Amino acid sequence: MSGIALVGAVTLVLKPETLEKIILPLVAFAAGSLIGGAFLHMIPAGLSSYGNTTTFYLWILFGFTVFFILEQFLHWHHCHREGADGKQPLTYLILIGDGLHNFIGGLAVAGTFLIDIRLGIMAWLAAAAHEIPQELGDFGVLIHGGWKKSRALLFNVLSALTFLVGGIIAYVASFRFNVDFLVPFAAGNFLYIGASDLVPEVNKHGEIKTNVVHFLAFAAGLFLMWLIKFIFE
To answer: What is d(CA 230, CA 122) in angstroms, rounded to the nearest whole number?
Structure first.
């Protein structure tokens, strides 16, 4: 997962027009994968472990709320921070936000692996589908914000390594604690990212042709999650 950060280097060889054509369909595909993963895999798996209890739904809401709070803080900080060293403040927030996001993602995905390897594979695929367009976008923002290409790629990879840190912490914690809560927590994460971050991005266009392409990409993400469920079960 951390290695996916290297995909940002693709922006160096792609024409801006080409990148613009593929990035939003990728975002729509990622949205379908994340939302499909939450509804078709994580929530059913969590229900089988927790049962239809209030605690189960509170963990989903907590996972949703954690990302909401994270984004609110980053947006506030962006508005109150002054620039320095020739690099736009937004670029630092991109790295901080990506690092925190990947750390929480590492906790969540590792937690699903600990419950069921098949569930973990699904969670990783859905998360990876989201990471590709995100890393493409993040790398472009860093370059535009004044970073040298090599330095931008290095720090992008370093921020992605927090995924590994989160995964290791979840694994170590599993020896002492019950980590079943990470499944509904991850479902909440996926629902927030898909519905709040990604879907609005692809809903900003009025052309019918573009909207159809985005819908098909979104449906492809949902279909992938259904296919994984069909194959594994």
So the answer is: 12
